[in-house]
């Protein structure tokens, strides 16, 4: 009978490979790095071009794009919910505490979406996948590690300001609270430390680190003093300070700084100073390869948080609006 004939199995194998390789439907369960390879090989290069141009124009943009992916994934999974503008029916995450007057880079995402749709000839690539790829390309553009991005996410039709307020970690948190917010996402304390290394790039506003530089005791005095001149007790709320001494280089100085009690945010310094994560901070501070390896692995875990796949959600035509 047919089952004993090897060519039957070959045909079956061919069929299953062919349907997964050429299908325009998302991969059945979960994500795959090859998702757009056959349907639009120009998609990923188009995204990289726009990210590189944006980062060349303003180095900080790389940091801002990386943060958008993080804030997307921590709120009901990586579904581009952070990109939806407020409407009477959309409870926009852009207005949540951690994002309001803080999250940025939305215009670059719009530009990427326009370019990738032009490259593919139609609206094929989800806004959630664009965020994941732009995060990786940003890290690479600032001299950091690369990794294979899992793809096939679809876009949400809803957003939740409440979930954004509850689930995105806050800069005044101590280590147990930070561990807890990551644990709720299925991420462990190694992921917490490695991913916090994202603060090797980018900036924070005076209003965010004011309490730390006037009230914390686990901060070195001359570092606090120099920040106090930039960030007075009142006013100048949006003045920027670099999160580490080289905010446009994806290096290990962020961790090195923590050893010297020079973390900018309370939540940064919480990773070093007598707690369970001290050893990881020490390791990453003098082994940039160990940091990069773990960061890349944890970014893949972050990007895999509760994606919409199959016929869930939609591929938005405009990342700011539900179709
Ligand atoms: C561990 C808990 C974390 C807390 C409490 C936290 C908090 C913050 C805060 C308060 C800022 C400054 C915002 C502002 O001043 O407007 C910031 C900036 C930033 N965060 Fe985090 N963050 C955390 C983890 C992460 C993770 C996991 C990533 C990415 C993987 C990330 C990426 C960034 C980047 C790149 C910036 C700079 C953005 C820019 O310059 O535009 N953060 N973070
Ligand atoms: C967001 O920030 C603006 C100031 O730019 C402020 O007027 C508004 O009340 C804030 N929104 C929320 C929901 O906090």
UniProtKB/TrEMBL annotation:
Name listed for the protein in its UniProt record: Peroxidase
GO MF entries: heme binding; lactoperoxidase activity; metal ion binding
Subcellular location: Secreted
Name of the gene encoding the protein in the UniProt record: LOC115749247
Residue stretches spanning the membrane: none
Source organism of this protein record: Rhodamnia argentea
Family: Belongs to the peroxidase family. Classical plant (class III) peroxidase subfamily. Belongs to the peroxidase family. Ascorbate peroxidase subfamily.
Binding site for heme b: 199
Site, as annotated: Transition state stabilizer: 67
Catalytic activity field: 2 a phenolic donor + H2O2 = 2 a phenolic radical donor + 2 H2O
Cofactor binding annotation: Binds 2 calcium ions per subunit. Binds 1 heme b (iron(II)-protoporphyrin IX) group per subunit.
Cofactor: Ca(2+); heme b
Catalytic residues as annotated in Swiss-Prot or TrEMBL: 71 (proton acceptor)
PROSITE patterns for this protein: PEROXIDASE_1, PEROXIDASE_2, PEROXIDASE_4
High-level lineage: Eukaryota, Viridiplantae, Streptophyta, Embryophyta, Tracheophyta
Keywords from the named record: Calcium, Disulfide bond, Glycoprotein, Heme, Hydrogen peroxide, Iron, Metal-binding, Oxidoreductase, Peroxidase, Secreted, Signal
Disulphide-bridged cysteine pairs: 40-120, 73-78, 127-319, 206-231
Binding site for substrate: 169
GO biological process per UniProt: hydrogen peroxide catabolic process; response to oxidative stress
């Amino acid at each position: 009978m047919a089952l004993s004939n090897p060519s039957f199995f070959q045909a079956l194998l061919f069929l299953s490979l062919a349907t997964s390789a050429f299908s325009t439907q998302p991969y059945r369960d979960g994500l795959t790095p090859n998702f757009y390879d056959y349907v639009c090989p120009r998609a990923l290069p188009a995204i990289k071009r726009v990210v590189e141009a944006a980062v060349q124009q303003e180095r900080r943009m790389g940091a801002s794009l990386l943060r958008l992916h993080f804030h997307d994934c921590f709120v009901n999974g990586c579904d581009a919910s952070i990109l939806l503008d407020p409407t009477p029916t959309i409870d926009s995450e852009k207005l949540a505490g951690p994002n309001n007057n803080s999250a940025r880079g939305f215009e670059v995402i719009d530009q990427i979406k326009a370019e990738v749709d032009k490259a593919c000839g139609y609206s094929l690539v989800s806004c959630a996948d664009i965020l994941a790829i732009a995060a990786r390309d940003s890290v690479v553009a600032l001299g950091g590690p690369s990794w294979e991005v899992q793809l096939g996410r679809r876009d949400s039709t809803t957003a939740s300001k409440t979930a954004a307020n509850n689930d995105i970690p806050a800069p005044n948190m101590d280590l147990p609270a930070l561990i807890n917010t990551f644990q709720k996402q299925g991420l462990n304390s190694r992921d917490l430390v490695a991913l916090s290394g994202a603060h090797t790039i980018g900036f924070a506003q005076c209003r965010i680190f004011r309490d730390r530089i006037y009230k914390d005791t686990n901060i070195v005095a001359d570092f606090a003093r120099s920040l106090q001149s930039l960030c007075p007790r009142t006013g100048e709320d949006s003045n920027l300070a670099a999160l580490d001494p080289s905010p446009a280089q994806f290096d290990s100085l962020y961790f090195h700084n923590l050893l010297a009690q020079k973390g900018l945010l309370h939540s940064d310094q919480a990773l070093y100073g007598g707690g369970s994560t001290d050893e990881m901070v020490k390791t990453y501070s003098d082994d940039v390869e160990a940091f990069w390896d773990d960061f890349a692995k944890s970014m893949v875990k972050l990007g895999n948080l509760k994606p919409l796949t199959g016929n869930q959600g939609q591929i938005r035509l405009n990342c700011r609006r539900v179709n």
